[in-house]
Amino acid sequence: MRNLLLFLAKYGHLLLFLILEIICFSLIIQFNDSQKETWVNSVNLYTGRVQERVNGVNNYLKLQQLNDSLSVENAKLLQQIIDFKVDLKDNAYQNFESIDTSIHTIIPTRVCDKTIRLRNNYFTLCKGSKQGIKKGMGVVSKQGIVGVVKSVTDHYSDVILLLHSQSRTSVSIKGKQYFGNLVWRTNDHSLMKMEAVPKYANVSLADTVITSGYSTIFPQGLEVGKVESINDEQGGNNYEIDVRLFNNIELLEYVYVIGIDHGLEVQELYSKKNSN
Amino acid sequence: MGKNLKYVIRFLAIVLFQVLLLKRIDLSYQNFNYIHIFIYPLFLLLLPFQWSKFLYLIIAFVLGISVDLFYNSLGVHAFASVFIAFLRPYILRLIEPREGYNKDSTPTLFKMGFAWLFIYTSILIFIHHLIYFSMEVFSPQYPFEIILRTIFSFIVSLTTIMLVHFIFRPKS
Predict the structure, then answer these.
(1) Is A24 close to B64, i.e. CB distance below 8 A?
(2) ipTM value for the complex
(3) CA-based nearest residue to A210, from A195, A197, A226
(4) Would you state the pLDDT for residue A77?
(5) Residue numbers of B between 82 and 141 with CB closer than 8 Å to A
(6) Which domains can be identified in chain A, with CATH numbers?
(7) Are A24 and B138 an interchain contact pair (Cβ–Cβ within 8 Å)?
């Protein structure tokens, strides 16, 4: 109490000064029209600015949520478009079906996770056995083939990409019957090698490489890439052909899983044959 | 009691002089309307050195409000006069003569001499005018208006106040 009194004795006049000035100021802005107007306007100006800043920060914080909901919506719309196109038969898969009517399922899905920079690269798709994906199904995009489903869980599935040291796809040259294996030896994400093409096959540059249909994964006739260069295999009778993929696997966000009638059955048969 | 009565009478005289006479003096010439004479701060300047700081503030507030009532600008004059009433003790300390202030003395021509009185009056009147015109214009958009009005009015007000000192020669 004594301290308070001492404090008031020392600084009380400052307090009184401030109180009186505040009273004067409020009188000024209450009873003088022009000052009142200026005051109200400038206060609005500043509070408006602050409000705007706060709103900006708020919006920024909500951005993540908004983004998520947008991507969900996007995926839904894309699914609708795909369904619609499949219904219409006026679509990229029309040629699948005209070439090979054995395709019985097309499952559009988003890529949840991917590795690209490794020697053995995988996609993880956001759909799994609940949506009808099975082990051994092929994965394609609009521009070509992507890989093979390696394992499936309820809601996710792993895909071995073409860009995998163990990937091996049977392909042929369009218009010619020769076929070979498509493998990945380079570090270039769009450059594959086609092996085991006999030298008597008159392959020429810019020929189109398509799936052969001998595998049970992809239907016949899906375009894969273009012949870029033709080299002799060292000490062999075969060509080694560099194939430039149409697909940019690195950039894929949405892919389609395709299933072939009896494809899995045939695979079973192969594995039986091998084990015997 | 008689001493205090003197201050009451002086208060009324100065306020009435200000609001009845000086308010009506129009020194504007065409667009040049920067001159307004205010002598009512003289009342604050003439208060004795030894009074309480609280009392200065209260008196200044009452004085300012009284003038405001006649000028239709409630709060503006009060703001400026409370401001100089607050600053007055500090300014006094700043310009204190070598021998200090005599207790019970008052800042008059008779007691303090012309040079000291002139500096003392100039400082406080200038601050008063600056604050007053800032509050009156009430917008940082017109800094030149505030400065011009302050300077011209300051010169005229200062002259008037010094004249009052010479004419009436208040002793205390």
Answers:
(1) yes
(2) 0.85
(3) A226
(4) 75
(5) 82-83, 85-86, 135, 138-139
(6) 101-261 (2.40.10.340)
(7) no
